[in-house]
Structures are given as structure tokens and as C-alpha cells.
């Protein structure tokens, strides 16, 4: 049975430099405790049933606490004192669809209270739960999804998997007469069948292929992402860590042969975070059992650190 658990005390630990200076803080010393009201809440979705159903390599259910542990010892700067750890939904034997519904309800509740959500998955089935909660919390707003991912995740399937979340969200929008705005950055044409590309065209998905993301100027990419965001009142950012090259992110089910390196990813993510329209962000697909000397965990934690550092919570739109 799935259930919410507060994060164990031994997860948020690190080096204590307070003897040097009261400003020598790290995130484990600034993170808010469970239910402490702050503008951003960190949640875990400990599930990789979607990866299993998608015939991937399981292990991502262990990611939320692994990423917290790596984030804990990073230096605390501006923005890092605005986050509370809200615990993790541990899916266990609960059917994936039921767990996604429970998680989306929690996301909706937080957003209705004016709290932004940062989520550590879990497989990319996390995105349907997180995204649905965002849509339901903002019924009268135009929502846009920005996905950094090697895969379009628009698969047709009789059940939810890690490869179906954005098709599921598109179906939700169709059923509720809402526009579906989806931009995928870093997708690999070699990793997406023609059927998926055709489905993306049908849904009017914007795609920046990995080869283009590497060769176009950052200014050009910023302009495209900015133009996409201008169409949206609420932005949901989801980062499938397999968008990174395998040498930077070995700990995923499907490491990328090309990928979008972190030195190009971070400026793009940072610009998105500077918009007050960003209400939800997640990092998914990290698999500690496949990582090499925690290289992937360090990379993922650095991305999460940047999101929290640059997140402009602004005023509620």
C-alpha cells in the first residue's frame, strides 16, 4: 500500500562549518521540516512501476532520498531557505494509477495554498501525477509543459508507463477542453520512433532535437523557450535526467549517447526559473543502482540546487 512518509532524520546531514561563520550554511541546515510553511515544498515520488511496465531497468524508486542526501551538503545561498521537505509517497504495491491519483491530489492542495512544488521521482510516470495536479490546481489558467528529455514520452499504451505521461496529459486536456502546450528539448531522433514523431506532430508539440540543442546558440534557444512561455500562464518544468550525456548521467535506465550536457542545460533551466510563471519542477529517472561513483547523483543535485537558487516565486499569477 502506498503511503506518505516524512524524510528520515539521517538523510539531511552534512559538514558543519558554523564555527567558521554563521553564514557558512549548507542545505541540510536550512531545509524546513515537514509541514513547516514555506513557499516551495520538496516531495518524493518513490515509484518505478512505470519504468518496469515500459521494459526499462528498475531502481528509480530509491532516487528521492539518494538525491536529498547529495543535495544536503551543498552550500546554502539565496533561495535555499525557502523550501520545506514534505516527505515522499512510497508507492509499494499500490497500483500505479492509484498512486498517481494520490500524488496529484497532494500537488493540487499545495498549489491551491500558493506553494510551488519541486519533486524528485521515480520514473517519468511521476510527470503525469505532478502535471495532473498542476492542471487541476489551475483550472482557468493556460498551462505549458517544458520537458528536457531524450524521449518524447507520447507512447500509446493500455496502461500508464514511464513512456506515456505527456500523451496522458494531452488526453486530459482534450477531455477538459483545455489547450495542450508541450515543448520537448533534447529529444533524440534515434531514440524516438516515427510513430512517436507523428503523434507529436498531431499534438502540435514543439521539439528541439539534441543535435540542434548542441549546435544552436544559447540565445536562440532562450528565444524559443521564452516565446513558448509567453503563451502560458503556468509553467511546469520536468527534467528526465537521461537528457544528459551518459558520461554525466550514467545512473538512468537509458543513458544518452549524445545528450544535452549540463553546461548547456543549466543556463536554459535557470532562465525558466527566473519566470514567476514556474509553479512546478521535477527531476526523474535517476537510478542509484546504475550510477557510477555517484556521478549522476552529483549532477542531478547540482541541477536541483540551481532550480531552488534561481526560482522566482514572485506573486501568484
Describe this structure in words.
The protein has one domain: 3-Layer(aba) Sandwich (Arginase, Chain A). 36% of the residues lie in helices and 17% in strands. The chain contains eleven helices and nine strands. The mean pLDDT is 96.
Quick overview of this protein structure:
The chain has 317 residues and is α/β, with parallel strands linked by helices. It has a single domain (4-310), classed as Ureohydrolase domain (Arginase, Chain A, 3-Layer(aba) Sandwich), CATH 3.40.800.10.
List keywords for this structure.
HutG; Ureohydrolase_dom_sf; globular; 11 helices; EC 3.5.3.8; alpha/beta; 36% helix; hydrolase; Arginase, Chain A
Counting DSSP E segments of at least 2 residues, the number of strands comes to 9
* Strand line-up across the major sheet: 1-3-2-4-9-8-5-6-7
- Parts with pLDDT < 50 across at least 5 consecutive residues: none
Rg, nearest Å: 18 Å
- Specify the CATH architecture: 3-Layer(aba) Sandwich
Biggest β-sheet strands, sense, barrel: 9 strands, mixed
> Could you name the CATH homologous superfamily?
Ureohydrolase domain
Average pLDDT, rounded to a whole number, is: 96
Share of residues in strands: 15-25%
Overall, the morphology is: globular
Share in helix? 25-40%
